[in-house]
Write a structure and sequence with these properties.
With 425 residues, the chain is of the alpha+beta class. It has 13 helices and 22 strands. It has helices spanning 10-20, 51-60, 71-75, 78-84, 98-101, 103-112, 126-135, 159-170, 237-257, 290-294, 302-310, 389-403, 416-419; strands at residues 2-7, 27-32, 42-43, 65-68, 88-90, 120-123, 140-144, 153-156, 180-184, 189-197, 202-210, 213-215, 219-222, 227-230, 264-273, 276-283, 325-333, 358-362, 365-368, 371-374, 378-386, 408-409. The strands form five sheets. Strands 10, 11, 14, 15, 16, 17, 18, 21 and 22 form a nine-stranded antiparallel beta sheet that branches. The longest helix is centred in the middle third of the chain and has 21 residues, at 237-257. 45% of the residues are buried. The structure holds adenosine monophosphate (AMP) and glycine. Glycine (GLY) binds at residues 210, 225, 283, 287-288, 290.
Length: 425
């Protein structure tokens, strides 16, 4: 079987490794992949938003199934485009992808189906914003309606900032949409909860906690994610049951009623307060770096999960997980999430020997001859699995110290909220 995997981040390297480890005979093609996937698959250079080009390559390489990693091709309708041309795809269609692609769509769906989420108002003019300010307390969260590459959310502590940020969005700061969604600020602890979904059923696909802020102790600007661990202890059985009954089922049923069933990974971003979950956001894909901590804990053959999802047979398989915990720390280019240098050689990478429970997932890397160079903000993910998160973190930091990449930096405190609370973690 020939598999096409779309994307080039740490998430896609983790997906690629799991596919590679599958027992079924297969060949993997990454569109376009990175220096990590190049070791276990064939990288094909292509702009993944050029759907015609992608389709031609899929035909040329005789690809049987396609797995889409990132949100942009999903939101822009790559699934519909390929399905129309008889290509089998793992991922949600354009309509269902609006759960991530339009915050206004997601919030309206919540309202119509009584799904617990922050109070909100969808605004298309500054007067709408002023109305919301009259009746809501600060802080207020200002969100761009459309995709914004992680830069569309601002938590505002004063009214002036709410007005200024909204104004920028109305003026077209983000090309995806000029609408603004204003939200009440929710207090609590964040967690990410994942599912794999087909037309007939859905299955749990891990939980994790990400660390979005660039600085230690969660300070500084937001990033794509600086590190994560799995599972998320805050998602206990009681909370999980509420997530399923109050959030997941009403959402999937609402899509079904529109004859737009969901298929693929669903990422439920939550705020949990007093054991009650509130939906912050949906993503229509695996998280990055959450994928890099969840997949190493997966025991079931990943390719068989993908095939069963595509064929709507998910209910026939049992998905099993290792009890052990995992963590990943992201090695970033100095300056990220602001300006940073590219093409910096990572000299020591080839000298690092990994034990069975350790992984290095590439993100923004490229290989030139035998050397690896950086080409993005988030460059490598070092992951480890074990019984004790403090020890797991120490193992990861040892590897990062061996890599000793002078052009990079990483957070040494991933997991601080639970590790420091309970040394047995
Ligand atoms: P998003 O891009 O929707 O994931 O939002 C980015 C981050 O902003 C989230 O991970 C939360 O930390 C924070 N956030 C978003 N919406 C809210 C909210 N209504 N209340 C509190 N924090 C929020
Ligand atoms: N780690 C956050 C995301 O993938 O959106």
């Amino acid at each position: 079987m020939n598999i096409g995997l779309i994307g080039s981040g740490g998430r896609e390297h983790a997906l690629c490794l799991k596919l590679f480890q599958s027992n079924s005979p297969k060949k993997i093609f990454c569109f376009p992949g990175n220096a990590g996937t190049a070791n276990i698959a064939t990288n094909i250079e292509v702009d993944i938003l050029n759907f015609n080009k992608v389709f031609k390559l899929i035909k040329f390489y005789k690809i049987d199934i396609v797995i889409i990693g990132p949100e942009e091709p999903l939101v822009k309708g790559l699934v519909n485009f390929l399905n129309k041309r008889k290509v089998k795809v793992f991922g949600p269609n354009k309509y269902a992808s609006k759960l991530e692609g339009s915050k206004a769509f997601m919030k309206n769906l919540c309202k119509a189906n009584k799904i617990p989420t922050a109070n909100f108002k969808i605004c298309s003019s500054i007067n709408h914003v002023k109305d919301f300010l009259k009746t809501n307390n600060l802080p207020i969260v200002v969100k761009a309606d459309g995709l914004a590459a992680g830069k569309g959310v601002t938590i505002c502590k004063n009214k002036r900032t709410v007005l200024d940020i909204s104004d920028e969005i109305f003026k077209g700061k983000f090309k995806s949409s000029k609408k603004v969604v204003l939200e009440e600020f929710l207090m609590g602890e964040e967690a990410s909860y994942f599912l794999v979904v087909d037309r007939n059923s859905f299955k749990f696909f891990g939980s994790a906690q990400d660390h979005k802020r660039v600085g230690e102790k969660d300070r500084g600007p937001n990033t794509g994610g600086m590190g994560a661990y799995s599972p998320a202890p805050i998602v206990n059985k009681v909370v999980e049951n509420k997530i399923i009954e109050r959030i997941v089922k009403p959402t999937l049923n609402a899509l079904k009623k529109k004859k737009q069933s969901y298929k693929g990974f669903l990422y439920v971003g939550l705020m949990i307060k007093n054991n009650d979950p509130y939906l912050i956001e949906y993503n229509v894909r695996m998280g990055d770096p959450e994928c890099q901590v969840i997949l190493p804990r997966l025991k079931t053959d990943f390719l068989s999960i993908v095939k069963n999802t595509i064929n709507d047979n998910l209910k026939n398989i049992k998905i099993k997980w290792r009890k052990q915990k995992s963590m990943t720390i992201v090695l970033c280019s100095k300056g990220y999430p602001g300006k940073y240098k590219k093409n910096q050689k990572i000299k020591n990478l080839n000298n690092v020997k990994l034990k069975r429970n350790n992984f290095i997932f590439h993100a923004g890397t490229k290989r030139i001859q035998k050397n690896i160079y950086s080409m993005g903000g988030r460059v490598l993910n070092v992951t480890s699995v074990g019984n004790n998160l403090l020890k797991v973190r120490k193992d990861i930091i040892k590897i990062l110290e061996k890599i000793n990449w002078r052009a990079g930096f990483f957070r040494k405190d991933i997991g601080w909220k639970i590790i420091d609370k309970n040394e047995n973690n």
